[in-house]
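User: Okay, second chain of the day. Same drill as before: sequence in, C-alpha cells out.
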Amino acid sequence: MQKDQNLGYELLDSGFGRKLERFGRYVLARPCAQAVWSPQLPQQEWEAADASFDREEGHRWHNRGALPESWTMDVDGILFRLGGTDFGHLGVFPEQREQWGWIRSMCSSARGERARVLNLFAYSGGSTLAAAKAGAEVCHLDASKGMVEWASENATLNHLGDHPIRWIVDDAHKFLVREKRRGRKYHGIILDPPTFGRGQRGEMYKIERDLPETLALCRDLLEDDARFVLLSAHTPGYSPLVAHNILSQAMTGVKGKTEAGEMLLTGKPGVLPLPSGVFARWKGESRA
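Assistant: Same drill. C-alpha cells below.
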C-alpha cells in the first residue's frame, strides 16, 4: 500500500457540474451537480488530473489504472485507506471534517467518563474514528459487510484496533428495535442516512419515508444525560432548515439546542467552497 497521507485533502476547483480534488498525491475529477458555476482553473489543469469518473457514460472511470489499488490519506488527524469504487467514491467524505471535530468535543469529558456512541449508516468510519480518538466507546453499524470491514481496517490504521468498537452489519431499524429491547442506551448518536438504500436482506430505506421513524427510535436509545445527536444528509432538496426542523421535532421535550448548516468542501483561499450536503446537530443541555 502506498502511503501519501501527509498531503491530505484539498478542493482545487469546481464548475460545470464537476469537482477537481486532491486526495493525497492523486488529483481526481468527479461529478458534482451543485457546481453550476464556471470553473476557475484552465481546462488543461482539469485534463491533467490523474483520473476522472463520469456518470453520463455508465458510471465509469477514465485512467483508473493511474491510481493504485489503495492508498492512505490523513484528514485532520484521521487516517483513511482510499480506493476508487465502482460508484466513484473513494472511502472518505471530507465534507464531514467539521463534524468530526465537533464529535470529538462532544465525546471528551473533563471527568474522564467514557461516552457511549452509536454511529448508524457509518460507511468507512470517519465519525466512528473521531469519537474513538476522543475516548468514546463506539457501536459502528452499516448494512454493507464490505464497508464495515473497510472501517475496521481504518481503525487499525489509526491504532484503534484494540479500542472498544462494536462492528455491526445489520439493517438500522431492526438493530435499533433490538437495542431498545435489550435496554442499551447511548450518550451520543450519529446518523448519515442514504437517500435510498438496501439492507443485507433486501430491506429498503427511503429517507423521505423512514427518517422520522429512525430519529424516533434513536431518541428512545438516548441516556438521560445524552450529549448529542448528529444528523447529516446528502439528499437533494434537504436544506439546513429541513434538517433542523426534522431533528428539533424529533427531540421535542428533551432539553437541549439544535443548530444546522451546510457541509462544505473547501480549498485554499480563493477557491469557491462547494456545498456537499447538510447537517443538523442537537446538543444536550449539559453541553449547551
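The first strand starts at residue 2 and ends at 3.

User: Thanks, on to the next one.
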